[in-house]
Amino acid sequence: MRAALYARFSADLQNDRSVDDQLVLCTEYAARNGYQITARYSDRARSGATIHGRDGLLDLLSDARAGQFDLVLTESLDRLSRDQADLATIHKRLTFAGIGIIAIHEGRADAIQVGIRGLMSTLFLDDLKHKIRRRMTGVVSDGRVAGGNAYGYTPVPGQPGQPRINDEQAAIVRRIFAEYAGGRSLRDIARGLNDDSIPSLRGTRWNASTINGNAARGHGILTNPIYSGQIIWNRVTMVRDPDTGRRISRPNPETMWRRSDAEHLRIVDQELWDQVQARKQGRSVEKTPRARPGPAGRRLLSGLLRCARCGGGLSQHDRRGDAIRVTCATAKESGSCDNRRRYRLDKIERAVIDAVCARMGDTDAVAAWLDMTQAESRDTAQRRRRAEKALREAQGRLERLQMNLIDGRIDASFFDRQVGAIRDDIATRTAALDETPAANVIQLHPASLAEMNRVLTTLAKHLPQIDPTSPADRPMAEAFRSLIQHITIHDREGGAVACEIMGTIAPLIMGGIGGIWW
Questions:
Q1: How high is the mean pLDDT of the chain?
Q2: Contact between 250 and 239 (Cβ < 8 Å)
Q3: Across the strands, what pairs with 332?
Q4: What's the CA gap between 379 and 394, in Å, rounded?
Q5: How would residue 456 be classed by pLDDT, with cut points 50, 70 and 90?
Q6: Where is average pLDDT lowest: 146-160, 300-314, 459-473, 500-514?
Q7: Pair 75, 7: CB distance under 8 Å
Q8: With 0-12 CB in 10 A as exposed, 13-18 as middle and 19+ as buried, what is 283?
Q9: Which letter, b or e, does each residue of 405-438 get, where b requires 16 or more Cβ atoms within 10 Å of its Cβ?
Q10: Is the CA virtual torsion 450, 454, 459, 460 positive or negative?
Q11: Do 88 and 114 meet the contact criterion of CB atoms below 8 Å apart?
Q12: Are 343 and 314 in contact (CB under 8 A)?
C-alpha cells in the first residue's frame, strides 16, 4: 500500500526538529507495517488553526485527488488540523478519494474519532487563548509592555516588555506633539519631518496618517497613550477570517481594556498631551457646515493609479462639476514628492479603457499571451512560495527563541548570542521575498475571449455611467479591474500625459506609454 507522510509544527512551543522527528516516527511505522512511502509533506511554523497558507497540506490534498497514494500517515490528527471544521473537511475529502488516515498514536481515523479529536483540538485552542490572555494581563499589571515596539523606545535585550526611552526619537515625538498643539496640520508636520530627513520607525517617509493614527486602536503618534506614561492593552481582539485564514483585528469596548501606569516611559508631559487630545477631539466632533465637494465614491480605476515620480498612489484633489482631478497622494500627505500636477480622471479612464478594448480585441495576440503568461506565472508562484516559506521559518525561529526566554527555558546570555544571527537571517529572507514578484495573472481561456470582448465593448460604451459600488455594475467593473495591476501616470513635453498600464494585460499593450495620450 502506498503511503504519504505528513508532519507539521506550530510556532509556539515546538522547534524546527519537530517535523523531522515526526517524519522519522511515521517512516518507522510504515516500515513495520509494510507500507511503501511515496511522498512526504510538511508545514513548518504553521498554525493548525487554519488550512490557509499551509502549502504542504494543500499539496497533499491535491495529490490525493490525483490518486498518488492510498494512505496518509501522521503522528496525530491535530497535526492535520486543530480546527474542528477543517479536520472534518480533510477527512471527508480523503475518504471520497478512497484514502485512509492513520495517526500513529491514535490508530485509523473514522468519522467518530475525527469529530472527537476535532472538538478536543478546538477546546485546546480556546484554552490556549485564555492562557495567553492571562499571561499578557499579568505582563501589563507588572508595568511591562505587552504589544510591539513604539517609536521613541528601544527594546532591551533579555528584558522583554521593558523598553527604554530612545532620547533622539523622543525629541521627535515631543516636536510632533508641540507642533500639533500649536495648530500645524498633520500634513505640514509630516512634510517638515521629511524635509529634515528624519526617518520614521520603519525608516520610511512620514505620512499624516502615521502621525494621526487611530484612537480606538491606540495606533499613531498622537493617540498612543504610552507617550503619556500609560500602558493600555487589549484594545483589539484578533479573529481569523474563515474564508481567507487571515487574522483581523476588531476594537474592544473600553470596559475590556487593561491599563497600567508606566511613568518611567512618559515622553510627553501631561499638559501637552491633554492639549493635543482636546484638539483632536474638537476636530473629530466639529463638522463644517459649508458645502464641500466630497469623494465621488469608488471609481473604475480607484487604487490603481500611480505617480511616475515617486510611485505613490493618486487620490482625488478636487471636483469641478462632473470633472474630477487627481493628484499625487504622497505629495499631498507628506510633501516628499514634488509632483503637484493635477490630472483629469475622466480622461485617464477613457484613455485606459479604449487602449484595453483595442488590444483585447486582437484574439491571436491574446492567445499567444495566455500561453506565455501561464508558464511565467507558474514559475513565479513557485519562487514566491519558496521565499515565503523561508521567511516564515526564520520568523518562527525568532518567535520560539523569544517565547523560550519569556518562559525561562533559556537565559538572557543565550538569547543575546542567538538573536542577532536570526534577525540577520530574517532581514535577508525579507529582502529576497521583496525581490520576488507576486504572480498576478488571470487565467483566460481563448474560448472566453468573445465574451470578454463583448463585456469590454459594453464597458467602453457605458463608462461614464459605470458605478463600481452598484450591485448591477460591480461584476463588469471587477472583470475589467482584474486585468490591471497598476497604471503609472507620466508627464510629457508640452503638457501631454501618458498612461503606462501594468498587470496581466501589459504584454498586450506594448510598452503602455506609446499610444495612450491626450
A1: 76
A2: yes
A3: none
A4: 23
A5: low
A6: 500-514
A7: yes
A8: exposed
A9: beeeebeeeebeebbeebeebbeebeeebeebee
A10: positive
A11: yes
A12: yes
- Which amino acid is it at 1? M
C-alpha–C-alpha distance, residues 372 and 384, integer Å: 18
H or E element that contains 74 = strand 71-74
Q: Strand 497-502 relative to strand 486-491: parallel, antiparallel, unpaired?
A: antiparallel
Query: Could you tell me if 222 and 211 are in contact, meaning their C-beta atoms sit under 8 angstroms apart?
Result: yes
Q: Can you list the pairs that 99-103 forms with residues at least 24 positions away whose Cβ atoms lie under 8 Å? A: 99/64, 99/69, 99/70, 99/71, 99/72, 100/70, 100/71, 100/72, 101/71, 101/72, 101/74, 101/77, 102/29, 102/71, 102/72, 102/73, 102/74, 103/74, 103/75, 103/76, 103/77, 103/79
CA-CA distance, 87 to 51, in Å (whole number)? 9
pLDDT at 31: 92
Using CA atoms, how far apart are residues 5 and 30, in angstroms rounded to an integer?
9
Q: Which three cell numbers stand for residue 324?
A: 474630477
pLDDT of 179 higher than 60:
yes
Question: How many CA atoms are closer than 13 Å to the CA of 36, on its beta-carbon side?
Answer: 6
Please name the residue that has the C-alpha cell 526619537. 169
